[in-house]
Write a structure and sequence with these properties.
With 333 residues, the chain is of the alpha/beta class. It has two domains: 90 residues, Winged helix-like DNA-binding domain superfamily/Winged helix DNA-binding domain (Arc Repressor Mutant, subunit A, Orthogonal Bundle); 224 residues, Vaccinia Virus protein VP39 (Rossmann fold, 3-Layer(aba) Sandwich), CATH 3.40.50. It is built from 15 helices and nine strands. The strands form two sheets. A seven-stranded mixed β-sheet has the order 5-4-3-6-7-9-8, sandwiched between helices. Helix 13 packs across helix 15. The longest helix has 14 residues. The radius of gyration is 22 Å and the shape is globular. The model has no long low-confidence stretch (mean pLDDT 94).
Length: 333
């Protein structure tokens, strides 16, 4: 047998089949099949009645979710796995089911990758300044739980006890500020974002009961600094949206808005200088080329250069469990 005939399309077949469990998870999130199971096992018909769908078509999805390790089945009774119970039941504190909104958008855009490359333009463009209000609200609703969790992770990893005024730059849903201030009640936060986004931020803060500890301010960080005299700034998932020149401007304006001795935390998809890791950042660049005109996952080296140029001192970069990174930098006294 020649070496060529011994080669099998194992990687190709594995990648082609990977779509099925992902699509099963997406459908399960969208239909919310997991919440009815919070009190114990149910049959297909019972789940169908709970979520208001015909049982005939639901059955194949439930068995696909078993295959995807999100459900278990015994004697035709389905139950959540531990992971699904922890993250996909609506009443769970770490609920991630609303991510079906952002995942649907991301995956539909990825289908257009070849077209985006051929046309040299994103074929699933996201423009937050012109996005209709309802679409923008759905976008942030899909990322709210993730942003809250990011805020909690930040204060677990770093000592925020000395901070009093935090600015959440391009804070979107306000989730990060909610997560930080829940854990650190001595901090007064301000979400700075585009004028079109601020009404949605306020709505989100009201729903979370956080309006007393999180303020809002309408501004575009690319255009100029904002008032406030903050002692800590957080930029989550914003630099990767921008062109290199706009990223440099944003960092410079954040520096001007911080008090001397203030700290900056950047959270997002950041590449090693090899551009081969972390895996999540490498993959995310496929998403970005479909949705942003010039944004992308930049390298640690690029961040170091831009931070120095903006007047910061680079402190560290940490890659966290989900493959994103945290960069900490200081504005010298």
């Amino acid at each position: 047998m020649s070496s060529l005939t011994a080669i099998k399309p194992e990687t190709i077949n594995s990648l082609a089949d990977a779509i099925f469990p992902a699509m099963a998870m997406l459908a399960g999130m969208k239909l919310d099949v997991f919440t009815p199971l919070k009190n114990g096992p149910l049959s297909t018909g019972e789940i169908a009645a709970e979520i208001g769908v015909p049982p005939r078509q639901l059955g194949p999805l439930l068995y696909a979710l078993v295959e995807a390790n999100l459900l278990a089945v015994e004697n035709d009774q389905f139950c959540n796995t531990d992971e699904a119970a922890r993250f996909l039941v609506k009443s769970a504190p770490g609920y991630l089911g609303a991510r079906h909104l952002s995942l649907s958008r991301r995956w539909s855009g990825l289908i257009k990758t070849a077209d985006s490359i051929k046309s040299d333009a994103p074929q699933a463009r996201l423009d937050f300044s012109t996005m209709p209000s309802e679409e923008l609200e759905n976008f942030y609703a899909g990322s709210y739980a993730e942003s809250c969790a990011a805020g909690r992770v930040l204060v677990e990893r770093y000592d925020f006890s000395a901070y009093r005024k935090l600015v959440d730059v391009a804070g979107g849903s306000g989730g990060l500020s909610v997560g930080v201030t829940e854990s650190c009640p001595g901090i007064q936060a301000t979400v700075v974002d585009l004028p079109s986004t601020i009404p949605l931020v306020r709505k989100s803060l009201d729903a979370a009961g956080a309006s007393d500890r999180v303020n809002t301010h309408a501004a575009n960080v690319v255009d100029g600094p904002f008032p406030g005299g903050y002692d800590v700034a957080v930029m989550k998932s914003i630099v990767q949206v921008l062109s290199a020149d706009h990223a440099r401007s944003a960092l410079r304006h954040v520096n001007q808005s911080l008090e001397p001795g203030g700290d900056l935390f950047i959270l997002g998809t950041i590449l090693d200088d090899s551009r081969l890791a972390p895996s999540y950042a490498v993959k995310s660049n496929l998403n970005y080329l479909n949705i942003y005109d010039e944004g992308r996952a930049y390298t640690e080296g690029e961040y170091r250069d831009w931070l120095e140029e903006a007047g910061f001192v680079f402190s560290e970069r940490v890659v966290v469990e989900d493959g994103t990174s945290i960069i900490k930098a200081l504005k010298p006294i």
